[in-house]
Amino acid sequence: MDVLLYSIISASPLYAQEEYKELSHQDFLDEAVRYYHAGDRNSAMQKLLSLSYNQDAPQELRLEADIYIGEIMYIQGDKESTQRVFTRVLKQDPSYRIDRFRHPPDVCEFFDFVKSFVTIPTPAAPKEQQSLPIIAYSPFGVYHLQHGKPWKGYAYLTTQTISATASLGLLVYLNGNNTFNEGELDRKSQLETLVLVQRASTVVFYGLWFTSILEARQHFDLNIRQAEDGSTMMPYFEWSANF
């Protein structure tokens, strides 16, 4: 975008908006067009931009202002910016028809050219929320083993097997060997230690299980985002016309 257009856009629109107090939206557009035809593109562009972004103005006038903005850019040789402006118009009104009596033939042809390549996206149907597969809730790293994370799966498999074996083994042992005679302090201390180890093994097992589920959820959500990620842009097409 050239220096002239940059200076216009960066200028405050408050000056132009003050004139709305005296002019209707249609008169404001007509005045901008008169400036344009008189060769004062700077003033014309300032008024057209002010009208284009004025949400109180009718849409048809705002779109017509955009067409004139694109026309000025086209005449200045900035066809890429012209394409973006015309695309914005068509996205707001896919059936918009340029007035061939008010705009030069080459501008109308370029508008038709852009229109032929613009695809108006249809509203996407609500995507069904994908739920975490049941296998993700399995212990012993089953999810990770089946989804390309063997080292993590085997780590969960090993540690959970050890902790589960220790917990169940000690639980069975303590159920049948949980008595001691009065004065057998060593026996009492041994049983208390085994109880602590059994409980710690149980906590480790369920802690690893919970962590495995969280990591499975992260892996699952990441795969969904990567599958849905993507954006498309209409490429800039070279245009040439002889009149």
Number of strands: 0
> Could you give a short account of the major beta sheet?
none
Spans of at least 5 consecutive residues whose pLDDT stays below 50 are: 1-20, 231-243
Structural class: mainly alpha
H/E element sequence:
HHHHHHHHHH
Instruction: Give the DSSP E fraction (strand runs of 2 or more residues).
Output: under 5%
Number of domains: 2
The CATH topology of the largest domain: Serine Threonine Protein Phosphatase 5, Tetratricopeptide repeat
Average pLDDT taken over every residue: 81
Over all CA atoms, what is the radius of gyration?
A: 36 Å
Shape: rod-shaped
Q: Would you give an account of this structure?
A:
- This protein has 243 residues and is mainly alpha-helical.
- It folds into two domains: 115 residues, Alpha Horseshoe (Serine Threonine Protein Phosphatase 5, Tetratricopeptide repeat); 95 residues.
- It has ten helices and no strands.
- α5 runs antiparallel to α6 and α6 crosses α7.
- The protein is rod-shaped, with a radius of gyration of 36 Å.
- It starts with a helix and ends in a 15-residue tail after the last helix.
SSE layout:
Elements: H1 3-10, H2 14-18, H3 25-37, H4 41-52, H5 59-75, H6 79-92, H7 105-117, H8 142-146, H9 150-176, H10 185-228
Helix pairs in contact: 1-4, 3-4, 3-5, 4-5, 5-6, 6-7, 9-10
Key structural traits:
Serine Threonine Protein Phosphatase 5, Tetratricopeptide repeat; 65% helix; 2 domains; mainly alpha; disordered N terminus; 243 residues; single chain
